[in-house]
Amino acid sequence: MQKWEYLWTVIPGSLKKIKVSGQKILAHDYVNDLGMQGWELVAVEQSFPGSGISDYILFFKRPKAEI
Fold first, then answer.
1. What residue ranges do the domains of the chain occupy?
2. What are phi and psi of 51, to 5 degrees?
3. SS (HEC) of 7-53
4. Bridge partners of 12?
5. 14, 55 in Cβ contact below 8 A?
6. DSSP code of residue 9
7. Are the C-beta atoms of residues 57 and 41 closer than 8 Å to each other?
8. How does pLDDT run across 2-52, given as a tens digit for each residue?
9. Radius of gyration over alpha carbons of the chain, in Å?
10. pTM of this structure
11. From CA 17, how far away is CA 15, in angstroms rounded?
12. Closest CA to 15 of 55, 60, 59
């Protein structure tokens, strides 16, 4: 049976720079890097719909490495 690992991250609604490991990088560069690491984007949620705060939560999964 395939096992999965999961990751989620918050991206600002502006889709501009985000802070990752103490560095500010472009959101699309970060998401592309996750894809290169084998993460697949499976869902996106708006953090507080209708509140004027437009951050997004991105959910990723990838196959868990066999031990």
1. 4-63
2. -100, -5
3. EEEEECCCCCEEEECCEEEEHHHHHHHHHHCCCEEEEEEEEECCCCE
4. none
5. no
6. E
7. no
8. 999 999 988 887 778 888 888 889 988 999 999 999 999 999 998 776 666
9. 13
10. 0.80
11. 7
12. 55
